[in-house]
Design a protein that fits this description.
Order of helices and strands of chain A: EHHEHEHEHEEHHH
Strand order of the largest sheet of chain A: 2-1-3-6-5-4
Oligomer: homotrimer
CATH superfamily of chain A: MoaB/Mog-like domain
Helix content of chain A: 25-40%
Number of strands of chain A: 6
Strand content of chain A: 15-25%
CATH topology of chain A: Molybdenum Cofactor Biosythetic Enzyme, Chain A
Shape of chain A: globular
CATH class of chain A: Alpha Beta
Radius of gyration of chain A: 15 Å
Chain lengths: 184, 184, 184
């Protein structure tokens, strides 16, 4: 496909949205993707407070108007009452891919005792893959490292453009190795 | 119990259902079970396209009319729009057993980077256990290997017949070992 | 916060509730917590049969009237028709924390082949954390060992009192170590 890959990056943070706090999550995602993705892509950034309606509106806008085939959120996935990113994501989604949430927590559990508290979701809206990431930049890298291998096939299977990954993701093989087949 | 164990094997595939493609998933399941199950059983096979209503009808038929106490599906669990096996399974089920989906993906993750894309479910309809398996024969074996140890106890707990397993499943002990107790 | 930590311990068992069988699950939870928690706390015990309405009433009472910020259930999480503890828990909850159920099953899988059969949930009702544990005392210890590290942060994030843990939980460090940061 010739469509340019567009990746939405939605920062969800009360403090970052008022400017009280610098948004570290959004840039951390873009930095990580810049190293991991070998094919052309562009980021579409958004920043909203921890408000369910505003998160939903931004997700719809990124998918429906901005035509992002892949959208990452950062922040708002914990158990605290203000954390509503998973609720907003679910509200705009057609399908859940439970394996992403499970894998993100399993990866995170290798680093922190509190991995079970995250309610991160992976979902599909139309032809786009939505993924909730944590707010902490270090945790973002750890989790993207653990899940990115599944993303190009997923985007392709739901109708998005091909995503070529760099050696940092494939482990040095450009052709799909034995670990890169799909079980469908 | 004296009831003969009947196992439904439902292949879900557009191409296999038109004859364009040989059904490999169904036979792979039957072959694996033939080695794993030591007690008497018989298979009841079905083949349908990736159509939610037809999958639901076949699942209902296998449980309600054919009296299968255990039903495996193969195929249709990925993220692509035509993949609707989990939706159909959920629609005819009374309860979800989330541990089966989690375990199937965790097992698959040892072999492929794309394990998180599978939406496989384990559920209960009446007194029957329904399990979604992938379409790929190799992946079917890997996953059955990883989950079968939990199946006989589950079938017994929901009212089905006793299932004796061969050494290939129990690890050489015919009596339940320390790994084979149930935490209830 | 100065509020005393109150922990609800709800045993769900037909046989224990009629006195036919000694309640082993409830005491096992209290014993384990007595070793793990260094700060002041008190237990509020309840015992009900495997009846969804009675479980729901007890959970509401423990949270709303007894002001337990943390509630453990024991028993009734398997696949058998009488097992309805997860249904009752879900019915009185505002939110699910899927990571707790996943982690409990992953921990249990290290010990038993049947871990996937458990439908244990972790949820939030108001400002309280509800966690379903199995009925077997040995399995209770194994699972509490595996999940307790995530509990103090969770209780604090949803508005509960601080919980100090003993060396048996923190691994000998009283200050949060590298494994004890939170990714939010």
């Amino acid at each position: 496909m010739d469509t340019l890959l567009r990746i939405g990056v939605l920062t969800v943070s009360d403090r970052a949205s008022t400017g009280e706090y610098e948004d570290l999550g959004g840039p951390a995602i873009v930095d990580w993707l810049s190293i991991a993705i070998a094919s052309p892509w562009e980021a579409v950034n958004r920043l909203v407070p921890d408000d369910q309606k505003q998160i939903e509106m931004s997700l719809r806008d990124l998918v429906d108007n901005e035509h992002c085939q892949l959208v990452f959120t950062t922040g708002g996935t914990g158990p605290a009452p203000r954390d509503v990113t998973p609720e907003a994501t679910l509200a705009v989604s057609d399908r859940i891919l439970p394996g992403f949430g499970e894998l993100m927590r399993a990866v995170s559990h290798q680093y922190v005792l509190t991995a079970a508290l995250s309610r991160q979701l992976g979902t599909i809206r139309g032809s786009s893959l939505l993924l909730n990431l944590p707010g902490n930049p270090k945790a973002i890298s750890q989790i993207l490292e653990g899940i990115f291998g599944a993303i190009p096939d997923c985007v392709a299977l739901i109708g998005g453009p091909e995503i070529a990954v760099t050696e940092s993701v494939t482990g040095g093989t450009s052709s799909p190795g034995p670990l890169h087949q799909i079980n469908e």
